[in-house]
Design goal:
The chain is α/β, with parallel strands linked by helices and 270 residues long. The chain contains nine helices and seven strands, in the order αβαβαβαβαβααβααβ. The protein has a single domain, classed as NAD(P)-binding Rossmann-like Domain (Rossmann fold), CATH 3.40.50.
Length: 270
């Protein structure tokens, strides 16, 4: 159901009031997923953070960190889930339903990067990057879509990368760029297939965002070189990406599906 614009404006800071949002890959406190969980909580969402690297202690840390940042307690649960594993994804979605009764939105920020030249990428490297980034996205989307299909509503936001659009060359190798190209194609296909059922799916392509993903993958010299070439003259912050995820998860983007939104400071204008 679309909210009229006046309602959206009067609901400032409440764009996701009582919406149940599953943020996958949100356990890193410096990451895009965590920034998204925090912004969604600020906008009234109930949050499930699913991640391969989450436990009770990490969940408490996330809950306390977000409460401190937004100035109030929020419904937040943590779910351990390896998106490479189909059953983990189904179980994670079941956990969300058990806790919150429904699921309105999936944001998939889980991913890994490997900086390797093409000829040094082993079969095992290739399989790992494709399994997490592409098969994992397929798995978690499939689990969420089974709920969205029954509801006749739902929004998916998948994280790809500028690497898919420009042909790598920044942080990730050929396997990373290819996996993210697959995420774009997968998301577009979901948008086309599930649009008639009231389900939207969009993809976000960040460029260089200052998160733990850059640690050890980018020398300070290369980082400065890239920043110098960005029209907005800085690297991205996780909150820059979170803002676009909020737009795509909320009714502000009610007529947007199958879209690829760049968050790259103008570094790739196409
Ligand atoms: N940081 C950047 O410069 C950048 C640029 C372009 C795209 N991206 C994409 O944005 C997304 C978020 O990146 P980030 O920078 O916040 O990374 P990050 O490393 O900070 O966070 C990624 C999260 O994914 C989780 N994860 C990894 N493998 C998983 C698995 N198998 N199952 C479940 N969770 C798993 C990690 O534990 C981590 O919490 C990724 O898809 C990444 O490829 C990042």
């Amino acid at each position: 159901m679309n909210a009229p614009f006046s309602t959206l404006v009067s609901q400032e800071r409440s764009l996701l009031s009582n919406r149940v949002c599953m943020i996958v890959g949100g356990a890193s406190l410096r990451g895009i997923g965590y920034a998204t969980a925090r912004l969604f909580a600020q906008h009234g969402a109930k949050i499930a953070v699913a991640d391969i690297a989450i436990d009770d202690a990490a969940t408490t840390e996330i809950r306390m960190g977000i409460a401190q940042d937004i100035g109030r307690d929020t419904d937040i649960i943590g779910i351990k889930c390896d998106i490479q594993n189909r059953h983990d994804c189904d179980r994670a979605v079941s956990d969300v339903l058990r806790q919150f009764d429904t699921l309105d939105c999936l944001v998939n920020c889980a991913g890994i990067v490997r900086s390797q030249p093409m000829l040094s990428i082993s079969e095992a490297d290739y399989d790992l990057v494709l399994d997490v980034n592409l098969k994992g996205t397929f798995n978690i989307c499939k689990s969420a879509l089974s709920v969205f299909k029954k509801k006749g509503a739902g929004a998916i936001v998948n994280l790809a990368s500028v690497a898919a659009q420009r042909g790598g060359g920044l942080v990730g190798g050929a396997h990373y760029a290819a996996s993210k190209g697959g995420v774009i194609s997968l998301t577009r296909t979901i948008a086309r297939e599930f649009g008639p059922l009231g389900i939207r799916a969009n993809v976000v392509c960040p460029s260089m965002i200052e998160t733990a993903m850059l640690d050890g993958n980018l020398s300070p010299e290369k980082f400065s070189e890239i920043v110098a070439s960005v029209p907005l003259k800085r690297a991205g912050h996780p909150s820059d990406v979170a803002g676009v995820c909020l737009f795509l998860a909320s009714e502000l983007s009610a007529y947007v599906t199958g879209a690829t939104i760049d968050v790259n400071g103008g570094s790739h204008i196409h």
